[in-house]
Write a structure and sequence with these properties.
It is a single chain. By secondary structure, this protein is α/β, with parallel strands linked by helices. Helices cover 23% and strands 17% of the residues. It has one domain. An 8-stranded mixed sheet has the order 1-2-5-6-7-8-9-10. The chain has a two-stranded antiparallel ribbon with strand order 3-4. α2 links the parallel β5 and β6.
Length: 240
């Protein structure tokens, strides 16, 4: 049975890797780190080492047993392109995604340098979407790295959005997600930052998904932007 997700822009999660390390300000209040500590305390075997990077080979073929087609977020509890994940293991993850062609897989990374460096080592299936996280203008270089890849669907996760992102170059980008930070210590997000990004997305004809305003009580703050929800997604046009 698939691990159903409460993340608004996906349906399930699959974690053949768990654990990570912080690389930029967006990592400060990492939800996955908090969850890993909780799961370790509960005795979950995949989190016996807490948030240390661990490879879980027994998880590699899991999506092949999920017969219902679904959107799957890969490594919600890690980063597939973390420097401690060997290239050969990354290739095994991609092999599973290629074999499970009835699913759509979403891979998100902050390690865009490694993503770009390994691009030619990877055979990119059409059913794999690849995105980078960008929290403020200091990390827009990640977008350039993403564009260098041969991924068929490229997306941006601007979450937690920690500053304005004016004049984004959205050429070659297929999807844009924006969200505020949630949980303890959540940093505020200026509504004008979101409106500006939404307007850029619409002008570039890029599907826009507004995930949440965030804050300690994310449910109360909701996800309405100027009176409506924004749930746009890329149009799937996979070859048969």
């Amino acid at each position: 049975m698939a691990a159903q997700s409460h993340i608004e822009w996906t349906e399930s999660t699959w974690n053949p890797v768990t654990g990570c390390t912080k690389v930029s300000p967006g990592c400060k209040h990492c939800y996955a780190e908090r969850m890993a500590r909780r799961l370790k305390a509960m005795g979950h075997p995949n989190y016996a080492k807490g948030f240390q990077v661990c490879l879980h080979e027994h998880m590699l073929d899991l999506p092949l047993h999920w017969r219902k087609p679904q959107m799957i977020f890969v490594n919600s509890m890690s980063d597939l392109f973390h420097e401690d994940v060997p290239l050969e293991y990354i290739k095994r993850v991609f092999y599973t995604m290629r074999q499970a062609s009835w699913h759509t897989f979403q891979v998100l990374t902050k390690r865009s340098h490694r993503l770009a460096r390994l691009d030619q080592e990877i055979e990119w299936p059409e059913n794999v979407w690849v995105g980078v996280s960008v929290e403020n203008r200091d990390y827009t270089l990640r977008i350039d790295h993403l564009k260098r890849t041969a991924a068929h669907i490229k997306f941006l996760s601007l979450e937690p959005l920690l500053g304005p992102l004016p004049e984004l170059d959205l050429h070659g980008i297929n999807w844009l997600i924006v969200g505020g930070e949630s949980g303890p210590g959540a940093r505020p997000m200026d509504p004008q930052w979101v409106i500006d990004i939404r307007d850029q997305s619409c002008a570039a004809n890029v599907p826009f998904f507004f995930k949440q305003w965030g804050g300690f009580n994310r449910k109360r703050n909701g996800r309405l932007l100027e009176g409506r929800t924004w749930n746009q997604m890329p149009i799937l046009q996979y070859a048969s």
